[in-house]
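## retry 2 of 3
previous attempt timed out at serialization; input unchanged, resubmitting
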Amino acid sequence: MLIVEIFYHKLDFKTPGGTSRGILKNKLTWYIKIFHETNHNIFGLGECGPIQGLSIESGDKMMDQLKKVQKSINNLSNLDLSLFPSIQFGVESALKDLKNGGKRIIFQNSFTQGKPIKINGLIWMGNKDFMVNQIKSKIEKGFSCLKLKIGSIDFMEEISILKNIRKQFSSKILEIRVDANGALSTKDVFIKLENLGSLKIHSIEQPIPTRQWDYLKEICEKSPIPIALDEELIQLKKEKNEFIKYISPQYLVLKPTLVGGFEATRKWINIAEKNNVGWWITSALESNVGLSAIAQFCANYPLTLPQGLGTGQLFSNNIPSPLEIKGENIFYNENKTWDLSNFEKFK
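## retry succeeded, writing output
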């Protein structure tokens, strides 16, 4: 007989993070702890951390649904979690953790044995000086792939920042990704894509708001830079393979917390590869609990692109873990342990 305990935590950003949806100062998350009633000391742990305004689930309904999981944990087939992808991700993580001995090892592979994963350096939106300082810091730390959030300040000022990066670091091989989070207008999206194309941008995530599929298909066909789908994949009701065939994007950006866990992410990867579409995986502002699980999942694949797994360092009250970032790599330090001593305070 399995038992479930639920914990709630508010993660605080060290520095408020700017996105096209506003400034993030903190993020709510829930942890699900699963153990056998005969042994409370060995348990699996998973994180359920929706992003308000982006996830299909709302924070005020999370606790009610988690209580349903608590009651149904021994017969989950009777519980529909399709509208709660972050809970699906958390439950899946916790059960896999428990099955593997309750040591926060969700997948046993090269990552948990110390092999690093190359990641991109995330640059938050803000004024020009703020963004330029972040860029310099990331490059000094050794990052060769940067991901810039765009869409919150004047577009030409963002172009100016990108031009300065290319000029100042012309001697470096530097891959630049931009993420618009749907902030570009359909009226002038092609003009803006032309501006970005002149700067050798690797790709742009979600250039326009979601559910404009005919126009999105046209953008993917005509854009001078590759298009990566992100928000478009969240709770997609259309048949997924047919959707990808129709839109023909160049990349998919997959967030297990937002698309419904590892099995759902694996299905997206299979569809992408079947249709010759590239992909990478990105964390969605989880604490180290969810981030570690996602990084372990990534290592099940022969990765050819930098992954988006650098968000664990954003919080001042994260869960201490074996995760470390050195240069442009995240790795699992086997000599460090998880510190869960504060968990009881989260109840």
